[in-house]
Amino acid sequence: MKKILKYILIIALVALVVIQFIRPEKNEGGYESVNAFLEETKPSSEVAALLKSHCYDCHSNQTVYPWYAEVAPFSFWLADHVKDGKKHFNVSDWAQYSAKRKDHKLEELVEEVEQGEMPLPSYTWMHGNLSKEEQKLMMQWAQVARLQYKMELEQLED
Ligand code: HEC
What pLDDT, on the 0 to 100 scale, is given for residue 158? Predict the structure, then answer.
């Protein structure tokens, strides 16, 4: 019995070493890609800083990776969050979103932030969460930014 356990342990260790060679692609396209989003939605410098420090890592083409991103299986787990986050909401693709989609994403943003669901809990554990005041600033900015898209949509309907 002891022998079997020893084999299992050795196999697990070898597997752990082998997976270190599989490196998921990094999300490091640079912050220039968020400029169109900033120009349109016009966050204050405070809100812009909060977006950068708490949201862009999963919702833009630029992620600042922590050291453990170099270590599998954390690297896979992080890459998965970034991929999933960008699929739902990517500020780097803002220019390609329709007015309807922009309005809807900002509506979702208000809901997610209000309910404390964004940033993801697994992220706030390492990066800290937004304070109540910061959440409020972010929601106010998003509501104001939505107005331009609502107006655009109304004009389309006329
Ligand atoms: C660690 C990665 C991560 C961080 C950081 C993060 N998100 Fe997300 N976000 C996700 C993932 C994954 C999803 C999709 C799954 C879900 O909704 O839980 C998502 C979904 C969303 C959605 C929903 C889009 C839709 O179509 O339903 C919005 C809006 C959003 N995030 C806004 C934010 C904001 C604002 C912040 C910063 C305050 C933030 N997120 C921080 C990973 C992240």
Answer: 74
CA atoms within 13 A of residue 53's CA, in its CB half-sphere = 14
Please name the residue whose Cα sits nearest to atom 9 of ligand 1.
Answer: 85
pLDDT (tens digit, 9 = 90+) per residue, 140-150?
Answer: 999 999 999 99
Residue nearest (by alpha carbon) to ligand 1 atom 14 = 85
| Token pair listed for 39 | 């120009």
Distance 158 CA to ligand 1 centre (A): 33
Mutate to test the pocket of ligand 1, among 101, 102, 118 (most ligand atoms within 8 A of CB): 118
Collect all residues with Cβ–Cβ distance below 8 Å to 69 and sequence separation of at least 6: 75, 78
Ligand 1 atom nearest the C-alpha of 111 is 29
∠ CA 116-50-27 to the nearest 5 degrees? 95
Length of the chain: 158
Q: Distance from the CA of 17 to the center of ligand 1, in angstroms?
A: 32
- Residues ≥6 apart with Cβ < 8 Å to 43: 51, 141, 145
| C-alpha 7 to ligand 1 mean position (Å) | 42
What does the pLDDT read at residue 1?
76
